Amino acid sequence: MMPNEQYFGGVLRLVVDSEPTPIFLVDDDMRILEYNTAAGELLDADASAVQHQRAGEALHCLHSTDVAEGCGHGPFCQSCVIRNSVKNGIHGNQVVRCQHKMELMRQGQLLEMDTLITALPFPYQEPYLVLLAIESASDIEGNKSRLPISGWSQLLSPPSATGQ
Asked: What is this structure's pTM?
């Protein structure tokens, strides 16, 4: 949970944190303003280190280090499903369950995750903010129940060197 409760305070915090899907509140530059408990499983840092970081940098997107300016400025970023979904949300449009293969670097290893991206306008202020949800596509496609919050930790842990 973010220490700044400006957006997700009181009852809204309880509702958002009860959702097992990782949800981020981002601005037009994809800077993380808030996130729910499930989203904390995707992050590799504490709340104060992540607040106001761009999502690609906070999640350790493979492409967030392509150029010195960081997330959103590299050649891959123009076709990034997450970034383009957020742009649509900023303009008041919904993007629901758009397929995206996330490529994250964790402990020096590339992790690829099939995800479904949802971006919804959050008309708290102008310009709009966006609620960004990142679902596990394998969870949906396999017609399984939703991953428990701890499931993201398992997906994000690189295989051990011993093969266990």
From this structure: 0.78
